[in-house]
Design brief:
The protein is α+β, with helices and mostly antiparallel strands. It contains 9 helices and 7 strands. The chain has a 7-stranded antiparallel beta sheet, covered by helices on one side.
């Protein structure tokens, strides 16, 4: 069933959207900067996790996690940062998108902190050995780097984290009730669950870097 049949009442214009949502406050309108100031650089240096959002030339979107020790994203100057590309599943969704559409959005997260840092800009794939060498871990350089030229940078408020209680252990589900990644992958890939378990174990223990 197409979306036009599934959703009978939709909004088609910004004017219609504004009548429902309203307009941002002075604080929200003024908080966006176009460079990495010391506050943003400090936030990035303490963040072990980010989500990178990309889209291809047709507008088909993708969001992908990146994580490592705090400071794994290197700030080069007030307009540029670089994200190491460690070994993954070789789908290269983000990087394929960047080749055809350089626009990216980054969401930096610090564990226990409810505000996040959002950065929007233009990305490029970097193979500069000097830069990659500086991001080496366990004597292994990243395969490539995703360089980002910063266009927008701002703090996002904590409401989503407060509503979700994301950092509150008392709200977390019991481990035995969590979805099984191996069972999901087995069902989707038509590969036996045990084989998937073995693949994941090998990947997580031997191919992080």
């Amino acid at each position: 069933m197409g979306s036009s049949q599934q959703f009978s009442q939709t909004i088609e214009t910004e004017e219609g959207l504004r009548t429902i949502i309203g307009f941002p406050s002075k604080l929200v309108k003024n908080k966006v900067i176009t460079y990495l100031d010391p506050h943003c650089s400090d936030f990035i240096s303490k963040s072990p996790f980010l989500v990178i959002s990309t889209a291809d030339e047709s507008g088909c979107c993708d969001a992908s996690p990146r994580g490592d020790k705090p400071g794994f994203v290197h700030v080069l100057d007030e307009k540029h940062l670089i994200i190491p590309e460690r070994p993954g599943n070789r789908r290269i969704d983000s990087m394929r998108n960047i080749l055809s559409n350089p626009g990216v959005g980054l969401l930096f997260i610090i564990p226990g902190m409810e505000e996040t840092l959002r950065i929007n800009g233009k990305a490029t794939l970097v193979k500069d050995e000097g830069l990659l060498e500086k991001m080496k871990i366990k004597d292994r350089k990243p395969l490539l780097g995703i360089g980002v030229e910063v266009e927008e940078c701002f703090i996002h408020c904590a409401k989503a984290f407060k509503r979700s209680n994301l950092w509150e252990p008392n709200s977390w589900p019991d481990n035995e009730t969590l979805p099984s990644a191996s069972k999901i992958l087995s069902a989707h890939s038509k590969i036996s669950n045990q084989e998937v378990v073995d693949i994941l174990e090998e990947s997580y223990t031997k191919r992080l870097y």
